[in-house]
Write a structure and sequence with these properties.
The longest helix is centred in the first third of the chain and has 19 residues. The chain is α/β, with parallel strands linked by helices. The radius of gyration is 16 Å and the shape is globular. Helix content is 21%, strand content 32%. α1 crosses α2. The two termini are 28 Å apart. Bound molecules: guanosine-5'-monophosphate (5GP). Guanosine-5'-monophosphate (5GP) binds next to β5, α3 and β8.
C-alpha cells in the first residue's frame, strides 16, 4: 500500500499515515518487547473498548508469553472533571498482584487514560504499564507512564485500525488522516 491517496481511501480521509505492513511490523516489535519484559509474570493485557480491541487482538498474538486478556468500557461524565469517566463494563478478573498493561489505540491529551489508570492502580496490581499504538504526544496534558509506544503521530484526527469517525472506519487496515472539513 502506498502512503499516497489510494482508490480504497474513504472520501473523508486525505492520506494513509501508517500502512498495514508498517503497523504489523511495529506490533511484532512491541509484542517481542512485552514478552521479554514480562516473562514468567502473571501478565494481563487490558483494553478499553472499543477502539483498542483491534490493536489488542494483533498485539496479544505477537507476545510469546503466558498472558490473560480482559476488557473494560467507560463513558465520559457529562459535566464532570476533565477526563472523568464512569465504568460501563468492568474487568471480569481481579488484577491484584498482576502485571497489568493497558493497551490503547491512541493517547491524545491523556486525560481519559489517566483516569482509568488511577482506577486500576487502586486495585493494587504488581505493576501497571501502558502500551499505545499511536501517541499524539504534542497534545499531552497529563504525564503518563507510556511504557510501549508504537508511533508518535502529528496533531491530526486519524481513523482506521480501530479508530472511528462517527462509528465508521474502524475496519480500515491502515491509519489515515481525516480532512479538516470532514470533522464536525
Ligand atoms: P484523550 O483523553 O487522550 O484526550 O483521548 C481519548 C480518546 O479520544 C481516545 O481513546 C480516542 O477514543 C479519542 N481520540 C483522540 N484522538 C483521536 C483521533 O485522532 N482519532 C480518533 N478516531 N479518536 C481519537
Amino acid at each position: 500500500m502506498s502512503s499516497e491517496r489510494g482508490p480504497d481511501l474513504p472520501p473523508v480521509a486525505d492520506r494513509v499515515l501508517l500502512d498495514a505492513g508498517s503497523i504489523a511490523e511495529r506490533v511484532r516489535e512491541l509484542g517481542a518487547a512485552i514478552a521479554e519484559d514480562h516473562a514468567g509474570e502473571d501478565l494481563r493485557l487490558i483494553t478499553v473498548l472499543r477502539g483498542g480491541a483491534m490493536f489488542l487482538a494483533d498485539l496479544c498474538r505477537a507476545v510469546d508469553a503466558s498472558l490473560q486478556l480482559d476488557y473494560m468500557a467507560v463513558s465520559s461524565y457529562v459535566g464532570g472533571a476533565p477526563g472523568a469517566v464512569r465504568i460501563t463494563k468492568d474487568l471480569d478478573d481481579d488484577i491484584e498482584g498482576a502485571a497489568v498493561i493497558v493497551v490503547e489505540d491512541i493517547i491524545d491529551t491523556g486525560l481519559t487514560l489517566n483516569y482509568v489508570l488511577s482506577m486500576l492502580r487502586a486495585r493494587k496490581p504488581a505493576s501497571l504499564g501502558v502500551c499505545t499504538l499511536l501517541d499524539k504526544d504534542v497534545r499531552r496534558i497529563v504525564d503518563l507512564p507510556v511504557t510501549y509506544r508504537g508511533f508518535s503521530i502529528p496533531d491530526r484526527f486519524v481513523i482506521g485500525y480501530g479508530l472511528d469517525l462517527g462509528g465508521l472506519y474502524r475496519n480500515l487496515p491502515y491509519v489515515a488522516t481525516v480532512r479538516d472539513e470532514a470533522i464536525v
